[in-house]
Design goal:
17 strands; DUF4249 domain-containing protein; 9% helix; DUF4249; Immunoglobulin-like; mainly beta; two-stranded antiparallel ribbon; 15-stranded mixed beta sheet
Length: 336
């Protein structure tokens, strides 16, 4: 899995590049790079606790940009002041730097990835309201971005048909196989953008496990012109969909999936609890969120290819880099 910090820490500026061929070396002069704040955060109408745990890709991460020719590893920073304001100018959320378990030998007080932040007030956005995110840190210019949360999407129907049997996936993580279908009633009057996710709850309504596309049965091809399931914890696994050119038509998909139990293996009780519900989450996202993840997909696909066309990342953070995204979620629960 590729890491979000790799692109947030790098500004897409020109560099001094030596291009070697059989007999020719070409030097290209570049202006000096001015470090700027780079961040990623997605505001939603979901409770903050849900966003932090399930939608980890939406959490706030802050770093500083660096020139493309710098060889040091990009890192986040924990000294930023980040605040969220509503359309009346009222402060509705602020963030603190988060220390989480990492790879340090000193214990759990060191981040594995510096620059992670968590909200202090647990604010959830309201569809139709406008919000402004402002951030500042020593040594760089302050940045901000503004968005309006989209309206609540309408799930017309959703269903899950289990396949026979309950094979073991190994390592204590058992899975069920089945086919998931989702249909959205699209608004004909507007251009809309969507992301879809799914999760499994136990019979008491607690988190049970993940839902992932079954590549063994559905293949590995990703078609960005179709709605499809995204991964809530992976920046690389976001597959945004635009209804441009088909406004008002039914937006639907069906895909083979597997339900993975995430409770861990217990040798004293090797049989996991039965799953109770499958929840489909459809997110109506802002145009900037759509463009950012579209550009991010192109960026990852060209990584390491010296002959690829440039793949700059879309940004709505001014005068810095990154994404202030917006997502309005609706949940459809299916009893298993």
């Amino acid at each position: 899995m590729k890491n979000l910090t790799l692109f947030l820490g790098v500004a897409l500026s020109a560099g001094v590049v030596g291009v070697s061929g059989c007999e020719t070396i070409v030097d290209v002069d570049a202006p000096p790079h001015v470090p700027r704040l780079a961040l990623s955060y997605t505001l939603s109408n979901s409770p903050a606790a849900t966003s932090q745990s399930f939608f980890s890709v939406r959490n706030l991460f802050v770093s500083t940009s660096q020139g493309v020719l710098e060889t040091k590893e990009p890192r986040g920073r924990g000294d930023a002041i980040v605040q969220l304001f509503d359309d009346s100018g009222q402060l509705v959320e602020l963030f603190r730097s988060k220390a989480q378990p990492g790879y340090s030998y000193s214990g759990s007080k060191t981040d594995s990835v510096y620059g992670n932040y968590v909200p202090v007030r647990g604010f959830a956005g309201v569809p139709g309201r406008t919000y402004t995110l402002r951030a500042s840190a020593p040594g760089v210019a302050a940045v901000e971005a503004t968005l309006t949360l989209p309206p609540v999407p309408v799930i017309e129907s959703a269903g899950y048909v289990a396949q026979p049997g309950n094979p073991n996936g190994g390592g204590g993580y058992t899975y069920n196989a089945g086919r998931l279908s989702v249909s959205i009633a699209d608004n004909a009057a507007t251009t809309d953008y969507y992301l879809t996710y799914a999760r499994v709850l136990d019979r008491q309504g607690n988190y049970w496990g993940n839902v992932a596309r079954d590549y063994n049965r559905s293949g590995t091809d990703i078609n960005l012109s179709r709605l499809q399931l995204s991964e809530p914890g992976s920046s690389y696994g976001q597959y945004p969909y635009s209804d441009a050119g088909s406004n008002g038509q039914r937006v639907a998909f069906g895909t083979d999936v597997r339900l993975f139990y995430q409770g861990g293996y217990n040798p004293n009780n090797p049989t996991p609890p039965e799953p109770g519900y499958l929840e489909v989450i459809v997110s109506s996202i802002t145009p900037d969120t759509y463009r950012f993840y579209q550009s991010l997909g192109r960026y990852y696909d060209t990584d390491g290819n010296p002959f690829a066309e440039p793949a700059p990342l879309h940004s709505n953070i001014r005068p810095g880099y990154g994404l202030f995204g917006g997502a309005t979620d609706v949940v459809y629960r299916i009893k298993l």
